[in-house]
Amino acid sequence: MLKANFEKQEVEKVYARLAPVYDLVFGSVFERGRKAVVAAAERVGGRILEAGVGTGISLPYYSGECRIVGIDLSEQMLEQARRKVTEQKLQHVEQLAIMDAENLEFPDESFDVVCAVCVVNTVPHPERVLEEFARVLKPGGEIILLNRIGAAGGTRRAIERFFMPVTSKLGWRSDFPWDHFAQWLESSAHEVHLIDRSPMPPFGHFSVIRFGKAAVRANADRQPALVE
Question: What residue segments make up the domains of the chain, in order of their start?
Fold first, then answer.
């Protein structure tokens, strides 16, 4: 159960304050992970949703062959993203919109790929966000995340829990074990499965995680033809 200080309003306030300096503070720290997410997304191609697009720091990494839709909860972060799109003439960016990842305003099966960089461990209800990602994903598509993976137990887990009151005020959770993903995979209403999980710097506490949604099987739901 989430603590009261880990609510959407608090997260919005944090990222509103971070918006002017976000690229400077977090740009190089997660650059390798961001580029790995973009590279994996482009191997699938098509229409890509980047949830938690923030200041649009990843947008220039995409080639012009894909169409990118970016959403974020913070208007201040999106202002920075829109400025990048305009100044760098990023014509592959189709849309940038304020939206809650827990309640995506897109029809089912709208995207070939859903990406999220350091998002799932910042939301109040991670499994709900993952389920929304799966809902808007086309069959055969991929969910590609850069996300913190907390320890399953031991001293590191105790430290992560100890620092939760501090990190939650910074807009993310230090205590985020793999169980969140495992439980979602077991309970999901969609046919999703783990493809790959690759640790990334810094310290291997973050990983690029790829989930796949089952492709539609040919003739699977077709009724036999009537013979007259």
Answer: 8-213
CB-based contact 144:209 (threshold 8 Å): yes
Predicted local distance difference test score (pLDDT) of residue 135: 98
Cα separation, 117 vs 37, in Å, equals 8
Q: State the CATH architecture for 8-213.
A: 3-Layer(aba) Sandwich (3.40)
88 - beta bridge partners? none
Residue with tokens 């009261």: 4
- Block mean pLDDT (10 aa), the chain, length 228: 50 64 68 94 98 94 95 93 96 97 97 95 90 98 91 52 48 70 96 95 83 78 46
Strand bridging mode 47-51 / 206-213: unpaired
Q: Which residues pair with 209 in a beta bridge?
A: 145, 197
The per-residue b/e assignment along 32-60, b for 16 or more CB within 10 angstroms, e otherwise, is ebbebbbebbbebeeebbbbbbbbbbbbe
Q: List beta partners, residue 161.
A: none
73 neighbors 7 (Cβ within 8 angstroms): no
3-class SS shares of the chain: helix, strand, coil, % to 5: 40, 25, 40
Is 163 exposed, middle or buried (CB count within 10 Å of its CB: 0-12, 13-18, 19+)? middle
